[in-house]
Amino acid sequence: MSLEELIKNCKKGNRRAQEQLYRKYSKTLFGICLKYSRNKTEAEDNLHDSFMVIFEKIGQYKSKGSFEGWLKRITINTVLQKYRKEEYMTLVTENTPIETEVDEEYTDIGLSTLLGYIQELPNKYRLTFNLYVLDGYSHKEISELLGTSTGTSKSNLARARQILKERIETTHNKAIIGVLIFFFTEIWA
């Protein structure tokens, strides 16, 4: 079944089409949920909530732009709305378990370690960092999503970068820091 047919059938409430859509996009959207969550269980809850909203709003999709981009935006908005509703903007402590599933064999500071450091950031910094660096949102878009000013978004991003830099400096070789800074220069600029 083509994507257009799948969307059309989902708009009609066809359960098989919804299951197929879920299977097709759940891994991608789970990755997004995991970035914005403190653990795998919370990410699974966020994924479930996101698909509920997707199936509820799929009739509003007008085939303008990428369907996957639309799904990602719905997922991010659903997770952020949950944080706002539950006043979830609390600090993640050092004792909070960080779950990642990325292999760490290639470098002294593996991707899972770096993602773990990002997940350890206080929520307001983690959300801003993820939206800006990993998802490519502008400061204006972030301020609208989080209900803050663009200045606050810029400040939160700068603080997130500083916390990550300090965390890496205290736990890893200075040469690795240079490699990471070189690697992220384009992304973090």
From TrEMBL:
Keywords: Sigma factor, Transcription, Transcription regulation. One of its GO terms (molecular function) is sigma factor activity. Coiled coil: none annotated. The keyword RNA-binding does not apply. It comes from the Bacteria. Gene3D superfamilies: 1.10.1740.10, Winged helix-like DNA-binding domain superfamily/Winged helix DNA-binding domain. Residues 114-162 form the RNA polymerase sigma factor 70 region 4 type domain. Residues 21-86 form the RNA polymerase sigma-70 region domain. InterPro entries: RNA_pol_sigma-70-like, RNA_pol_sigma-70_dom, RNA_pol_sigma70_r2, RNA_pol_sigma70_r4_t2, RNA_pol_sigma_r2, RNA_pol_sigma_r3/r4-like, WH-like_DNA-bd_sf. One of its GO terms (biological process) is DNA-templated transcription initiation. It holds the Pfam family Sigma70_r2. The keyword Transcription applies. Belongs to the sigma-70 factor family. ECF subfamily. This is RNA polymerase sigma-70 factor, ECF subfamily.
